[in-house]
Specification:
The complex is a heterodimer of chains A (about 250) and B (about 270). Chain A is α/β, with parallel strands linked by helices and about 250 residues long. Chain A is built from nine helices and ten strands. In chain A, the strands form two sheets. A six-stranded mixed beta sheet of chain A has the order 6-7-8-3-9-10, with helices on both faces. A four-stranded antiparallel beta sheet of chain A has the order 2-1-4-5, covered by helices on one side. Classes of the chains: A alpha/beta (about 250), B mainly alpha (about 270). Bound molecules: adenosine-5'-triphosphate (ATP) and magnesium ion.
Chain lengths: ~250, ~270
């Protein structure tokens, strides 16, 4: 499934006290989180978004997943404008972000079933998928433990698995290896590569360059809401390491 | 995508399961009110004089009780709603679990309905627990059923009527609290914002229980909360009127429908929810 982003702008109301109007206690200025960004991701391709904190990566991904809408511009997935058809983005995308939490009092197994039901996944399909995903991320030992009793990494693994209950054709992951140990990070990489091979479209944001290099075909670098560059990995590296090129581009 | 009935049911089931998982919540919203009221009123009974107790046991008091109990029931119900609904909407927003629900393709109105229905069950349980506590204490104090003399719901239709009116009131009141809750950022904020509503509902219930010359005009039964209180009053004094009950239930359900619409709208608004 191809994705096309056309001149997307997203602003948030600015709540800085410095520019607050003293009388109305309101700020007329807006914070532009994503500023006129256009790019395309092709089916079976993985795009990585890199950028400093606050560059606008999470905001961009939220728009792709149909959680928030752009102020201006279009996002087209598989030929459909997702703001005329929000449900579509929600159905085809598997979205993971660390601001999104799971309910503490439930177990991974229960949550998997709950979200499967919400996505309308068939029972028999669900069990088979649960087996596969729990095995892939080493969650079986934890499957009956409450989220509140889990470590950060286990919670992250659970979140990953839960975001995949409906076997989405578009995988949108925001810092997926956050808090994971190297073994689990490796299994996330392997899983993503396998999905790419199966023809899924991947969009990741990350601060881990090795993950980007291993999984992504192309890299987009963002700075203060703008897409500074977007190119194939080799085109960005040009013989340097990815890190060197990153600093070079953002200097 | 999940079918209509099933998405609502899945969310309903999850909310109910959550109440049972989180024992603290179960105790606080369902068992505490009843136990507390029972304890307080029984303790009051211990320090009451014999005269006061015989007064309480008289038939006249029984009649007065039948007027007071609907008011208490409505207020207890509303308190239960606040406990349950502030947690399930504002609490989920606060903890960041709401987005996980909103990122699914389930219709916003189904999320709203599932949550409202589940919280109504909790609120009703809480209201009934409070009432049972009060009843229990009175029975302990007066040493028997005397208090119940003025109350005549012990017929089959009476019980059905009470259940209808209480459930209708529960969904409507939960809907109200849920709207406030959706507009708040934290569960605490939601509770603070609903305080003025508690006062308002209390006042309206008390006023509704007072006899007025135009008391049986049908338009009175079109005013939410007033009609629920009045119907309960009628049922408890053994003069239930089917038209009144029907109109009241219809009005409560219509109000709930509007609330579900309002809530779905709020769920769809990223400025409020994300
Ligand atoms: N809900 C919000 N309300 C107001 N401003 C927001 C909101 N979410 C993000 N922002 C602002 O938008 C900008 C972009 O944030 P975003 O979360 O997209 O950055 P990011 O690239 O994901 O950063 P990080 O690497 O730290 O995750 C930041 O300046 C941030 O302060
Ligand atoms: Mg981010």
């Amino acid at each position: 499934m191809g994705i096309k982003v056309e001149e997307v702008i997203k602003t948030y109301p600015c709540r800085k006290s410095a520019c607050m109007d003293t009388q109305t206690k309101q700020c007329s200025r807006k914070l532009t989180a994503v500023d006129n960004v256009s790019f395309e991701v092709y089916k079976g391709e993985a795009l990585g978004l890199l950028g400093a904190n606050g560059a606008g990566k999470t905001t961009m991904l939220r728009m792709l997943a149909g959680i928030v809408s752009p102020d201006r511009g279009k996002i087209i997935i598989n030929g459909k404008n997702i703001y005329e058809n929000r449900g579509y983005a929600r159905t085809v995308a598997g979205f993971l972000t660390n601001e999104m939490k799971l309910e503490d009092c439930f177990t991974p197994e229960y949550l998997f079933d709950f979200f499967s039901d919400l996505y309308g996944v068939d029972r028999s399909v669900r069990e088979e998928r649960k087996d596969r995903l729990f095995a892939a991320f080493g969650l079986w030992n934890e499957s009956g433990r409450k989220i509140s009793h889990m470590s950060t990494g286990m919670k992250q693994k659970t979140s990953i698995v839960i975001s995949l209950v409906h076997d989405p054709p578009v995988i949108i992951f925001d810092e997926p290896t956050n808090g994971l140990d190297i073994m689990t990070s490796r299994s996330v990489e392997d899983y993503l590569l396998e999905q790419k091979k199966a023809g899924k479209t991947l969009i990741l944001s990350t601060h881990i360059f090795s993950l980007a290099e291993k999984v992504c075909d192309r890299i987009g670098i963002m700075r203060s809401g703008r897409m500074v560059t977007i190119d194939a990995i080799e085109g960005i590296k040009r013989g340097r390491t990815l890190e060197e090129s990153f600093f070079e581009l953002l200097r | 995508m999940a079918g209509k009935a099933s998405a609502v049911r899945v969310i309903f089931n999850k909310e109910i399961k959550k109440v049972f998982q989180d024992r603290r919540m179960l105790v606080l919203t369902v068992f505490m009110p009843g136990t507390l009221l029972f304890a307080i009123y029984s303790a009051l009974g211990l320090i009451m004089s014999d005269d006061m107790i015989s007064e309480l046991s008289s038939t006249e008091t029984g009649t007065v009780m039948s007027a007071v109990i609907p008011v208490f029931l409505m207020i207890f119900l509303f308190m239960g709603c606040i406990g349950a609904a502030s947690e399930t909407i504002a609490g989920e927003k606060e903890r960041g679990t709401m987005t996980s629900l909103l990122k699914t393709p389930v219709k916003r109105s189904h999320i709203a309905l599932g949550k409202i229905l589940a919280m109504s069950v909790v609120a009703a349980a809480s209201g009934i627990s409070s009432l049972a506590g009060l009843f229990g204490a009175l029975m302990v104090i007066t040493g028997g059923m005397t208090v119940l003399t003025g109350i005549q719901i012990m017929t089959f239709t009476g019980v059905i009527a009470v259940i209808t009116i209480v459930s209708a009131a529960a969904v409507m009141l939960v809907g109200t609290v849920t709207l406030v809750s959706a507009a708040s950022r934290t569960a605490k904020e939601a509770q603070v914002f609903t305080m003025p509503l508690v006062l308002a509902v209390t006042m309206v219930c008390i006023l509704a229980a007072m006899p007025v010359p135009e008391g049986d005009k049908i338009w009175i039964y079109m005013i939410p909360v007033v009609n629920n209180t009045k119907c309960l009053l009628e049922i408890f004094s053994g003069v239930s009127d089917l038209t009144h009950i029907f109109v009241t239930a219809a009005v409560s359900i219509a109000v709930t429908g509007l609330e579900v619409m309002g809530l779905s709208h709020m769920f769809g608004n990223e400025k409020i929810m994300v």
